[in-house]
Amino acid sequence: MRKHLRELIDPYMQKALADREDVQETKRLLTNVSKRVYDLEHFLQKGEEIHTVFDGIDKRFGEMVNFE
Predict the structure, then answer these.
(1) Is 15 a member of any domain?
(2) d(CA 49, CA 51)
(3) What's the whole-model pTM score?
(4) Residue 45: which domain range?
(5) Selection from 42, 3, 65, 45 nearest residue 57 by Cα
(6) Does 10 fall in a domain?
(7) How many domains does the chain have?
(8) Is residue 23 part of a domain?
């Protein structure tokens, strides 16, 4: 009886384990992609901040030249 139940349940258990592994792999990939997106956004925002700093320096330099 147990043997027959085991034979009936075994394919479902294997499928459930395979699905669990797929979910874990997908979570890992999603975490990696999220980290890459965050790093890219951070890099781009830093680039805008540097651009803003140079714009500020240029603006002040222009004000100093026009002041004289």
Answers:
(1) no
(2) 5
(3) 0.54
(4) 38-68
(5) 65
(6) no
(7) 1
(8) no
